[in-house]
Amino acid sequence: MKVLHIIPQMHIGGAQRMVLNLCREQADTDEVFLCTLFDQGKDVILLTHLPDSVRYFRLGKHSGFDWRMFWRLFRLIKKINPDVVHTHQRALLYAFPALAVLRLAAVHTFHAMALREEPICRIRNCYRWLFKAARIEAISVSNAVASSLLDLCAVHSMVISNGVSIPEKSERSETAGKMIKSLCQTIRTKVFINVGRLEPDKNQLMLIRVFNRLISEGRDVVLMLAGDEGSISGYREKCLAEAGPGIHFLGMINEIADYLAASDAFCLASLTEGLPVSLLEAMALGIVPICTPVGGIPEAICDGDYGFLSAGIDEESFYLAVLTFLEQDHSRIQEIRRNIIRRYTENYSIERCAGLYLESYRNAASENRGIPIELLVAGPELSQDCRNLGGAIVLQNDFYKFCRENRVRLKIFPTNRIKESGPLQLINFCLLVGSLLALLKKGQPVMACFARRGCMTAGPVFWIISRLKGSKMILRVFGGKFDTIFNDFGPLISWLMKVTILKSDLIFLETRRLANEISGQANVRWLPNSRSRVEGVKGFKEFRKKLVFFGHVREDKGVLDAIAAADILGCEYELDIFGPIHSRSITEKYFLKHNARYRGILNPNQCRDAMKKYDVLLLPTFFDEEGYPGVIIEGYSLGIPCITTFWMDIPEMVKDGISGILIRPGDVNGIVQAVKTIEADYDKFAAGAWEMFDKFDSQRVCSDMIRQIRELYN
């Protein structure tokens, strides 16, 4: 999907950081463009973090009203011809004539309360008509913003909460830590930080007065204020004049994560807010927020559970809120930090936010979304025999379920009925081909879902049949070795694949590496492995030294390495093994000699219920055809980090040191050390695992696949 973001300028602010986060996240899967009305070079701080894949345009606006923007935006939008235009702040006023004339789908995000949006105050009586005439979908960043927009302009808006990625420390984080330490009087000094431009709406002057009072009472605290000078002349000078000892001005900080991570609490005394990005970044790091109850802040913070809210916006109320924080003991603060991380992961991750925006884009862009699709899908089907159950079957079953829930009509052609060996294999295959010819209607799209072996054997046959029937052919490839077909099986097989299945109308490949290697094909798309979201999962559990292995029990899945690591860790730790045994050297009696228990085979409905009881997933695999292991995604859906290997494409789906730990294949001591590392900082790894799941949520992945198939069908 082509997405064009338009914003007046990219100076450092909450809305601008939100746009940057969206561009970075959407660039992984979509074609993204960014346009600023004002001229800004790529040396602007936020633009230096813009991915190279995002094309950037600037239109040279001068201050005040500039009529040239109407024509320049019209030309730019017409040239790019995006699927959806996403406007921010005052950019909408210049963009809406082009959107109305070109009849393009568009969304506009309101980042602040309606009274703070300058154009609304001037033309609020026209706003309702404007959104209807230009077919623009209104989006608010919080329920409070949505209510203010409805009250002021009678415009209904969808709510998509701001999202942020977990801020990463820079190489200078140690220097920042030393600087902050030098500000502290003792090792028990509580460090508070405020992030935002110095201006009256952010109310730093009141914050300074609160901390002057606390310090004068002998409280061991320091306050740091990070942010550039605001637009109100003289406000910074007032703040500097009132600031006493223990209050420090850091100025504009590029790597704010270095300072947030070294702080005990995040303070925001604003008089008005939409949903502050700086607050969400602090929450992502587990920093306890202390805020005034304005705008969307109370939606993010429940007083006492996810931080502290003052009773009002006056000095006394905020003083009491800070005092309440200082009176909490260490265990209570740690509990609040865990709650904050959970709150962030469930509601404010950039993956979740981008996924919701993607859905809004589709709703805005898809004029033909009501046209039904009837697909003939050739792929594996769930059977009663769990011994041969693999990730591809579970993945395909989730796809069937999604289609049923979203009224996509399917005819399922179960390919796992074709026996892999035996004298009846050829006869069985011919019967299935005959059935396919009979089932496939003329012009009906056919979707073939195969692993590497199926691509070589059945793939060309399915492609030929689709062409005979005048049908569109969609190929979905499981696993990570599709490219070896062209290298390992000789020139004849390579030629056959290139003239048949590579000419499919759409090809979905499981890993980014595969999609990039075959990127010369315009019809190739990245479509990751996925799993359905688990409803009702709340919070992260304590580390209880329970380890688990799920998968086919065989040497190249690394099960022997996992067992050897459990022996070194000792009986204090538990390792349970689930899955069908596919090795003569590994029997149920084998486990009696080791610190591991074999738990048998589970059906798909039982797997995640069983996995909930464990802390860490072990998968030290070196399996030759590994793609994105579905069991890792299932662990992510429960907030369970993994220990796995630098093998094939696994590093694409595991953030080393965040959602899990990567080791070398066969490194038993590496597994042992990784278990100890995760145990020492389990909250962080659990949060990282939960955040990563959003990329592999089957609702998101299947929606994207169906959208692309629908576009092909129409």
List the helices and strands and how they pair.
Layout: E1 2-7, H1 14-26, E2 31-36, H2 45-48, E3 55-58, H3 68-80, E4 84-88, H4 91-102, E5 106-110, H5 118-133, E6 136-140, H6 143-153, E7 158-159, H7 173-183, E8 190-195, H8 204-216, E9 221-226, H9 235-242, E10 247-251, H10 256-260, E11 265-268, H11 277-284, E12 288-291, H12 297-300, E13 308-309, H13 315-326, H14 330-347, H15 350-365, E14 374-379, H16 391-405, E15 409-414, H17 425-439, E16 446-450, H18 452-457, H19 459-468, E17 473-477, H20 485-488, H21 490-499, E18 506-509, H22 512-517, E19 524-526, E20 546-550, H23 559-569, E21 574-578, E22 597-598, H24 604-611, E23 616-619, H25 630-637, E24 642-645, E25 660-663, H26 668-680, H27 682-693, H28 698-713
Parallel strand pairs: 1-2, 1-4, 2-3, 4-5, 5-6, 6-7, 8-9, 8-11, 9-10, 11-12, 12-13, 14-15, 14-16, 16-17, 17-18, 18-19, 20-21, 20-23, 21-22, 23-24, 24-25
Helix pairs in contact: 1-15, 3-4, 8-9, 8-13, 14-27, 16-28, 23-26, 25-27
Q: How many distinct beta strands?
A: 25
Shape: globular
Radius of gyration: 28 Å
Main beta sheet strand tally, sense and closure = 7 strands, parallel
pLDDT average, as an integer?
Answer: 84
Folded structure, characterized:
About 40% of the residues lie in helices and about 15% in strands. Helix 12 (about 295-300) links the parallel strand 12 and strand 13. Residues about 365-370 and about 385-390 have low confidence and may be disordered.
Question: Which labels suit this protein?
Answer:
single chain; 714 residues; alpha/beta; seven-stranded parallel β-sheet; six-stranded parallel β-sheet; 28 helices; 42% helix; 16% strand
